[in-house]
Amino acid sequence: MSNLKVAIQKSGRLSEDSLRLFKECGIKFNNGAKKLKAQSSNFPIEFLFLRDDDIPGYVEDGIADIGIVGQNVHEEYQKQIEVVKHLGFSKCRLSLAVPREEKYSDISFFEGKNIATSYPNILKKFLDTKGITAEIHQISGSVEIAPGIGLAEGICDIVSSGSTLLSNGLKEVETVMKSEAVMVADSKLSDEKRVLLNQLIFRINSVLEGKNNKYVLLNAPNASLDRIISLLPGMRSPTVLPLAQEGWSSIHSVINEDDFWENIEKLREAGAEGILVVPIEKMIK
Ligand code: PRP
Ligand code: ZN
To answer: Which of 17, 67, 174, 264 would bridge with 89, disulfide CB 3.0–4.6 Å?
Structure first.
């Protein structure tokens, strides 16, 4: 059986989260510090560790079957590949930034200016929609130092925590796009590899679904059961078990992370007590 070849970032913002995702999917492999390749011992997957900017091209050429990249990189390189899954991690934005002391009122600031970036295509499109003509200076790394060395008046780069901008005396002034990690795939995958990809996506979905939900256990007087059950619809319906103390029940269910705090308040008001909230490792609907 052939391996599914997966390209992930060698080192950078996406690397750790990408590796963790495969581990959480139960895929075992050994990635030594400087390794360029690794083979899983329990799933037909081979990992290729590459520069993120090269990943879309490798997937298009079929050197890798699938890859994990930021939407920013996918969008910049415009390769003939498909996004098969939004992964929800490594969230960041591509932004325009200028030196902190600069007076900035609006986008017209950039008219006729020099902007350094590794994302010339995305930036050009953005400036076009705003009717701004600027000189785009493409550089492949350390974009944040460009204003300081007189190479450009502003930059367009990835901002995550904002600490890179801060330590280089820059301030963020416009968001060009929001981004997160996505899984991309070669659009010409063989049927055999499609099967493997679907198995992998099934595992990823169960991991991501688990992270989005919590398992809740609580005690409640029987008189409050109907109200509590209406607040905790669960996967099909909650489990209700009698407590040793007469007139009381234990209720078990699943609750969405987004509605969590609001729901916990409502449950308390409805008479729930002894509420336990437990993380879910995998969830298959
Ligand atoms: C981006 C960007 C900054 C850093 C911003 O690099 O170029 O260096 O992240 O993060 P912060 O706001 O948390 O300081 P990226 O990880 O995309 O690496 P690459 O440009 O080398 O591919
Ligand atoms: Zn990069």
So the answer is: 17
